[in-house]
Amino acid sequence: MSGLLAATVAAPSALDGGANVVAVGVLLAEFGMFRQALIRDQVRLYAAQSALISVLAVVVAASRHLPDLYALAGLSFALKAVIVPVVLTRLLRRIGLTGSDPRWSDIAGTGALSLASTVLVAIAVAAFGFFTTARFGVRSPVLPATALAISMAVVLVSFVLMIVRRDVISQAIGFLSLENGISLTSLVVAAGLPLILEVAFLFDLLVVAVVFGLLIRVHHGSAESMSTADITSLRG
Amino acid sequence: MHAVLVLLLALPAAAALLCVRIPLRIAPVVTAVSGIVCFGLVLALVPTAAHGDLQYARLLRVDALSAVFLLATGFLYAAVAIYSVGYLSPGHTAGGHDQEPRRYARRFWVGLNVFAWAMLAAPLMSNLALLWVAIEITTVVSALLVAIENTDGAAEAAWKYVLLASAGLGLALLATIFAYYSGAHVLGQSYDLGFTQLLGVATRLPHAAVQLTFVLAVLGFGTKMGLFPVHTWLPDAHSEAPTPVSALLSGSLLAICFYAILRYYQVSAAALGSRFPRDALLVFGVASLLLAALYLFGQRDIKRLLAYSSVEHMGILAIGVGFGAPVALAGVLLHVLGHAAAKGNAFMGAGVFVQKFGTKRIANIRGGLDLLPWSGPLFVLAIFALGAMPPFGLFRSEFEIVAGGLEARSYVLAAILIIGVTVAFLGLAVSVTRMLMEPAGPARQPARELVPAAAAHREAGSTAAGSTARPATATLSRGEPTAWMVVPVAAGALALLILGIHPPAELTELFSRAVALLTRGGS
Q1: Cβ contact (<8 Å) for B192 and A194?
Q2: Which residues in B317-353 are b (16+ Cβ under 10 Å) and which e?
Q3: CB–CB of B144 and A200 under 8 A?
Q4: For residues B128 and B102, what is the distance between their CA atoms, to the nearest angstrom?
Q5: Gap between the Cα atoms of A235 and B223, Å rounded
Q6: Residue A77: which residues within 8 A CB-CB, separation 6 or more?
């Protein structure tokens, strides 16, 4: 921990800059999910986003001498950049959603708003998250405060994704990328969180991903499509 | 006593594992035994928890506050386990699609035990991170249990539920992380988020971060607790789940999420003074109470009706904490127990109706008191209890909450609370009176309910002719489907009476100690 405290005093600015670039990359990936027309590409984008966060974890681990974070980076890469995307892709293949069938694979038109309006809303929401975070005066010992503001923007934008997209896959990916945003936040403000708790969170994510997969299958079996536009019988 | 904590975790887990393999006819026995033993263990824990905290191996911890929620969960686990024996008996037709009943039953028993395990685990955890993990597990298990019926409605409800609840719990995870951040300022980077550690240094925590933490926690866990405006999954999930699961969802799971909010309340009140967290809870509480009270009118589905009543009661809990007076807090804790028993009873009663009449539609359920000699009157009692009629436990608890409001000089809010509760009771009473008191004959069936036009026409015709034409209900004979579905409801009614007339001394001590825990930090 002494290394951690020393680091807060003299933080190299190149590292801060690098961390911010990675964080911006995560946010861009989040925006990219809005314009993906194919489920497969969306899953890939999610994997890339997860990989970026693992990279950031390695950077923090190396620069701040937090060996626990290496393990966390490895685990989270294995889970979020490999296992969950593979499981999702296989699930889609099993229920017959391959790229060859445009009826199933094309989810571009499922937005409740047009793409341009969606992106505008997302930019507004991201800006809100970015600028209000400063108000709370949260200072991170390991990463610049900008990274925290960006991570809050990622969290809020993932909510937009979940709200405007009307197909179960985008909604599930929206949730998973929400979790990525939270991981980013946790890297910034809670880098020292005991490894055992981080592993518990990751394990939990795996369980959630599996259950999402199961329910996507149930939904597909009952609605014969990925769209949520026609599941409106329960109201009032 | 420490063995009790471990057993409480081990028993339901073992029951779930056993149910995966053992012959299907033994699974109900295993579950019922596990439920009853767990309830016994929790009861044994009460006198100890009323006098001191129990800690085991840094991970498990029970104090008076968690004991209250363990009691609610333990009681419902036992009641629901027994009830399910009847619910799954051969007469039960599972699901809309033709589904193999054996597979359904297997999944049901395993799921029920895992669900109970996760709900018992949550109040046993000694730190905020594991509390979050346990609550997330309750979400995924209960979402699968909602989907188990395999109907279109169930698929829709399960998807809405898992997405909204997971997103809400995402916010709760952010709250957990910011709680860690606040604590790390004082305790150093490697502490494990224990409540006692956080409470010990509460006065030195950074204020802005604690505010952010509390608001995120209320929004996040509030989503699962069913607070307005993030309650929208709740009526769907409660109405589409199998009835035993609905009873657990409503009576126990919502309370467990409230427990998580109370833990954050403890820390925030100690760090910031209780003004800020109380105001936040009052806003959500009043909104939930008023909205749910209005939604209770005009519901067509008996289980949705009860689900909105849950939103109402969660609002009352939030308001009670918002008042902050010790008597109101004691009322809130009693309300948790009373609501578990009353709502469990109401759902289990509704399950009997649904099985008897073959429909969830209020318009098609008539003459309940005549046809169901036990469940009918017990259902009436449960509804009276939910409407805070004396002599039941919820009367005492709501009385205490209102008294606390007056003590805290929140006269307007106390008045709103009384009006909201009264309106809600009226809403419940109108529908329930129709289901129970109106005779099963067609003459009084209100044709304005959404009966398909042809059917309505036929009814109107037969009434005009003055004949004794009979709708589906008239063919039903008087009698209960099975005694398994009556006994736990009777036990719940008895518990409600005890809570209302004369709560045992141990319980009163438990409440006063829990209230002391909640008020220790704040002023």
Answers
A1: yes
A2: bbbbbbbbbbbbbbbbbbbbbbbbbbbbbbbbbbbbb
A3: no
A4: 39
A5: 18
A6: A50, A51, A54
Chain B hits for A171, Cβ within 8 Å: 163
Does residue A34 lie within any of the structural domains? yes
> How many CB atoms sit inside 10 A of residue B257's CB?
26
Rounded to whole angstroms, how far apart are CA atoms A79 and A39?
Answer: 19
Determine the pLDDT at residue A96: 62
- The 8-class DSSP code of residue B443 comes to T
Q: What are phi and psi of B61, to 5 degrees?
A: -155, 135
How many Å lie between the alpha carbon of A129 and the closest alpha carbon of chain B? 13
| Global pTM value | 0.90
Residues in A closer than 8 angstroms to B304, CB to CB, are 236
User: What is the Cα A174 distance to its own chain's centre?
Assistant: 7
Is A136 within 8 Å of B209 when comparing Cβ atoms? yes
**Is the interface score ipTM higher than 0.85?**
yes
In order of A72, B164, B475, the CA distances from B409 in angstroms are 51, 36, 56
At A64-121, the pLDDT tens digits run: 888 888 999 999 999 999 999 998 888 877 776 554 554 455 555 566 777 788 888 8
With CA atoms as reference, the chain A residue closest to B169 would be A179
Distance CA B480, CA B477 (A): 9
**Residue A108 lies in domain:** 12-221
Radius of gyration of chain B (CA): 23
- On whether residue A118 sits in a domain, the answer given is yes
Question: What integer pLDDT is reported at residue B178 of this predicted model?
Answer: 92
In whole angstroms, what is the distance from residue B306 CA to residue B116 CA?
Answer: 21
What residues contact B399, with CB distance under 8 A and at least 6 apart? B331, B388
Domains of chain A: total: 1
The answer to whether A26 and A181 have CB atoms below 8 angstroms apart is yes
Question: Distance from B34 to chain A by nearest Cα, in Å?
Answer: 25
Cα–Cα distance list, A97 to A222, B174, B422 (Å): 16, 34, 52
DSSP for A13-68, please give it: HHHHHHHHHHHHHHHHHHHHHHH--BHHHHHHHHHHHHHHHHHHHHHHHHHHT-HH
* Domain ranges, ordered by start, for chain B: 2-440+476-519, 441-475
**Is residue A137 left, alpha or beta, with left meaning phi > 0 and alpha meaning psi from -120 to 50?**
left
Indicate whether A233 belongs to any domain.
Answer: no
Instruction: Indicate the SS3 state at residue A137.
Output: coil
Q: How far apart are CA A81 and CA A12, in angstroms?
A: 29
Reference A216, options A183, A161, A175; nearest CA is A175
Measure in Å the smallest separation between the Cα of B400 and chain A Cα atoms: 32
Tell me whether A208 touches chain B (CB under 8 Å).
yes
Put simply, the answer to whether B156 touches A231 (Cβ < 8 Å) is yes
- Least CB-CB distance to A200: which of B129, B151, B167? B129
